[in-house]
Specification:
The structure holds 2 protein chains of 2 kinds.
Chain A: H1 6-9, E1 16-27, E2 30-37, E3 48-53, E4 57-61, E5 73-78, H2 82-87, E6 95-102, E7 115-121, H3 125-137, E8 144-151, H4 160-168, E9 172-178, E10 206-211, H5 214-227, E11 234-237, E12 253-254, E13 257-258, H6 259-262, E14 265-267, H7 268-271
Parallel strand pairs in A: 7-8, 7-10, 8-9, 10-11
Antiparallel strand pairs in A: 1-2, 1-6, 2-5, 3-4, 3-6, 11-14, 12-13
Chain B: E1 2-7, H1 8-18, E2 23-29, E3 34-38, E4 66-68, E5 79-84, H2 86-99, H3 107-114, E6 116-121, E7 147-152, E8 155-160, H4 163-171, E9 176-177, H5 185-201, H6 208-217, H7 220-227, H8 235-239, E10 246-251, E11 255-260, H9 281-299, H10 310-314, H11 321-328
Helix pairs in contact in B: 6-9, 7-9
The chains are: A alpha/beta, B alpha/beta.
C-alpha cells in the first residue's frame, strides 16, 4: 500500500483565497486591508505572508492584526511600487491570494518577565501593532512595554488612536515623534531614536525590538548598543525582497541567511558578523 | 554496490525496449557539441560515453527554465537519464537540500527526482576547464546516481548503486554480474588517469575549503577588475549545475509561473521601496562568488561549486573564475 505523506499532496506555491473586507485609509500613502480568508488563518506575530493581487503580482507583508484572531487578517500597505500601487486601487469584495505564514516571528514567550522596548519608524509600525496585540494579551507576564515611534510628518503616522489606547493600558507607555512638524503638532520633533533619551528602562532585564526603514534600523541598533543593550537583546525585523517565502528563490539572501525562512526576525547577535545587513 | 556487464549492442537494444515505458536521454556528440538527446537506436553510434561533459547541466531535467507551479502535478512517463558526469551528480546534493527541504518540499522537483533513473558516466578524459578534483569531487560516481556507466571495448559495465539502479539492472535481460575483479581493473586505471590529468591541469588551484576565505578577503578592486568584462548576461548562473534561484510570476486566476532567475541580472534584490543591495555590477558579480564559496557552504552540507567549469566556458567576457582564484592565492 502506498502511504501518502502530507508533502505529497501539498503544493507550496498555491495561494489561499481571501476576500477584501474593508479598506482603511491610515495616511495619504498607507492603507490597511482587512482580509477574510477562505480558511482559518493562523500566524505567529512577526511572521509574514505573500499577498497577491490576481494576475498582477505578490509582495511580502507582516500582518498588522492580532495573532489571536484567525478568521480575519489585517495587512497595512504603503503605496510604493507596482503591486502596492494596484493594491491601493482595490475595493472591498476583491479576491486576493495569501501564501504563508512564513518565517520566524518574534519569540514572545522569551519576553516573559521582561521589559520590552519597541523602536519603530514609518510603516514599521504595522508588524509592531501585531506584536503589541500579542504583548497586551500576555501583559500579566511582562514588566513593561515601551513604544518609541517616529514618522516623517504627523500626517504620516499610522494607527493614531493606537497611542492613546496603549497609554491607557497598565504597564504600557507609547511615545511619538516626527521628523518634520506642522501647525497642529506639539509633540517632540526629531528621529525616533531621540525618544530613547526620555524613557526609563532596566536594560539588564529588557529586550529591544526594532522595526522600520533600514536607516532607522541601523542607527536605532547603534543607539541601543550605546545604551548598554547586548547583541542578543536586540531583535531586528529585516526587510528584503522575499519572493517565494520558502527559502528557495534566493531573492532575499542576506549573507548565508534566507531572510524569508531564517528570519525575518533576527537577533543582532545572529547577523552582526555580516556587513550586508544594512544594505 | 556491485557491477554488471552487458554487450553494448544488447544494452542499446534493451534501451530501445525500455522506450515503451520510459523517456530516455543519452549524451550525443556531433561536430558542434556534446549534449543530451532522446535515445534512438539508429543514432547509437553517436552516443559519447565517459566523455566530459554535456553542455546542459543536469539540473535542467529537474528545474525547467519555466513552469506553471499551480497546475496539476505532472505525472509523466518515468525517465532514464544516461551520461551525467559526477560533477553534475554531486550538484544535485545542493538542489535536494533546497528543493526537498522538509519544511517546504517542491512537489514538482520531488516528482521528477522520484521518476528519474539516473545513470551517470565516469569521466575517462577531461575538458579544458574541468576542476572537480580541486573541490574534492571525483571524476567518477560512487553515490548520488542510481548507476554509473563505464564503456570498455564491446561492453558496458554498470555500477549498481541504488534500489532504482537494481530495478533497472533486472530489466536488462542479458546482463550478468561481474565476479571477476580482473575484468574491472580497467576502471581503476581509467579513474587514476583522469585524476592525474585533472591534478596536472589544475596545479596550484586552491581547494574548496580555501576558496571561502580567499573570496571573503578579496578587495573591491578585484571585483571591479573582473566585473569590468561582465555584461550581466547570466550565462554563468544559467549553465551552473547548482545555481537554482527563480522568480515567481503571477498570472490570472492566481496561477504562478516559476522561472529560473539569476543574481547577475539587475534588480534581483531590489525591494519596492527602491533599495537595491546589488545595484552596482561589481556587487552583483561578487554576490555569485560569495554565494558559492562563503554563504552556501555556511548554510548547506553540499558543495555550491562542483568544479564543472561550465561558467568559464559560457562567459562571453572570457572571465575565468580560476584565474581570479589564482591571482588571489
Amino acid at each position: 500500500m502506498m502511504i501518502l505523506m502530507a508533502s505529497d499532496t501539498v503544493n507550496i506555491y498555491k495561494p489561499l483565497r481571501a476576500t477584501l473586507g474593508e479598506v482603511i485609509e491610515e495616511s495619504p500613502l498607507i492603507r490597511t486591508f482587512v482580509l477574510i480568508p477562505d480558511e482559518k488563518f493562523v500566524f505567529k506575530t512577526g511572521q509574514f505572508i505573500e499577498l497577491a493581487v490576481d494576475g498582477v503580482g505578490e509582495a511580502p507583508f507582516t500582518p498588522s492584526s492580532s495573532p489571536l484572531v484567525t478568521d480575519r487578517l489585517e495587512v497595512t500597505v504603503m503605496k510604493t511600487g507596482y503591486v502596492t500601487g494596484i493594491m491601493h486601487e482595490l475595493k472591498p469584495g476583491a479576491v486576493m491570494g495569501i501564501r504563508g505564514p512564513y518565517g520566524r516571528g518574534y519569540p514572545v514567550s522569551e519576553f516573559k518577565g521582561k521589559e520590552v522596548l519597541i523602536l519603530g519608524g514609518g510603516c514599521g509600525l504595522a508588524p509592531i501593532r501585531s506584536l503589541l496585540f500579542a504583548l497586551e494579551h500576555m501583559k500579566d507576564d511582562l514588566e513593561k512595554v515601551i513604544l518609541c515611534y517616529g514618522s516623517k510628518t504627523p500626517a504620516d503616522c499610522i494607527y493614531k488612536p493606537l497611542f492613546s489606547r496603549l497609554n491607557s493600558i497598565d504597564k504600557f507607555e507609547a511615545y511619538r515623534t516626527v521628523d518634520v512638524t506642522d501647525d497642529d503638532w506639539d509633540g517632540p520633533v526629531g528621529v525616533a531614536t531621540a525618544l530613547l533619551d526620555q524613557i526609563k528602562v532596566k536594560i539588564e532585564n529588557s529586550v529591544a525590538v526594532v522595526c522600520g526603514p533600514p536607516i532607522m534600523m541601523k542607527f536605532g541598533t547603534i543607539r541601543l548598543l550605546e545604551m548598554g543593550y547586548r547583541d542578543e537583546q536586540i531583535y531586528l525585523s529585516m526587510e528584503k525582497n522575499m519572493s517565494c517565502g520558502l527559502g528557495k528563490c534566493g531573492h532575499c539572501m542576506m549573507g548565508e541567511f534566507f531572510v524569508c525562512k531564517d528570519g525575518p526576525v533576527f537577533t543582532y547577535r545572529e547577523i552582526k558578523h555580516n556587513p550586508e545587513i544594512w544594505k | 554496490m556491485y557491477y554488471i556487464s552487458i554487450k553494448k549492442e544488447d544494452w542499446h537494444r534493451s534501451l530501445e525496449k525500455l522506450l515503451t515505458s520510459h523517456d530516455i536521454f543519452v549524451p550525443v556528440k556531433d561536430e558542434f557539441s556534446l549534449d543530451y538527446e532522446p535515445f534512438r537506436l539508429s543514432q547509437a553510434e553517436n552516443i559519447a560515453y565517459n566523455t566530459p561533459k554535456p553542455a546542459t547541466p543536469l539540473k535542467n531535467f529537474f528545474l525547467p527554465v519555466r513552469e506553471n507551479v499551480t497546475s496539476a502535478m505532472n505525472n509523466g512517463r518515468p525517465r532514464i537519464i544516461i551520461g551525467a558526469p559526477n560533477c553534475d551528480v554531486e550538484a544535485l546534493g545542493l538542489l535536494d537540500e533546497i528543493y526537498l527541504d522538509e519544511a517546504f518540499t517542491d512537489p514538482f522537483y520531488r516528482n521528477r527526482r522520484k521518476s528519474t533513473i539516473l545513470v551517470s558516466s565516469d569521466c575517462f578524459s577531461v575538458n579544458n576547464h574541468c576542476h572537480c578534483t580541486s573541490y574534492g569531487v571525483k571524476p567518477y560516481t560512487m553515490e548520488g546516481a542510481d548507476m554509473a556507466l563505464l564503456s570498455e571495448g564491446d561492453y558496458i559495465f554498470l555500477k549498481v548503486i541504488s534500489d532504482k539502479g537494481e530495478e533497472l539492472a533486472r530489466q536488462l535481460s542479458s546482463a550478468a554480474g561481474v565476479n571477476d575483479p580482473e575484468s574491472l581493473l580497467f576502471a581503476d586505471q581509467r579513474h587514476e588517469k583522469t585524476e592525474a590529468l585533472l591534478a596536472e591541469l589544475n596545479r596550484g588551484l586552491p581547494d574548496y575549503q580555501a576558496t571561502g576565505e580567499i573570496i571573503r578577503r578579496a578587495g573591491d578592486h578585484i571585483w571591479v577588475k573582473y566585473a569590468s568584462k561582465c555584461v550581466s548576461c547570466g550565462a554563468c548562473t544559467t549553465i551552473c549545475p547548482t545555481c537554482s534561484c527563480f522568480l515567481l510570476i503571477d498570472k490570472p486566476d492566481f496561477k504562478k509561473v516559476k522561472q529560473m532567475d539569476a543574481c547577475q541580472y539587475p534588480g534581483f534584490e531590489r525591494v519596492a521601496g527602491g533599495e537595491d543591495a546589488l545595484f552596482e555590477l561589481p556587487h552583483r558579480f561578487r554576490n555569485r562568488y560569495m554565494c558559492k564559496y562563503v554563504w552556501r557552504p555556511q548554510k548547506f552540507n553540499s558543495l555550491a561549486c562542483t568544479g564543472c567549469g561550465r561558467c568559464i566556458e559560457a562567459c562571453i567576457g572570457k572571465i575565468n573564475k580560476n584565474e581570479l582564484f589564482m591571482e588571489l592565492t
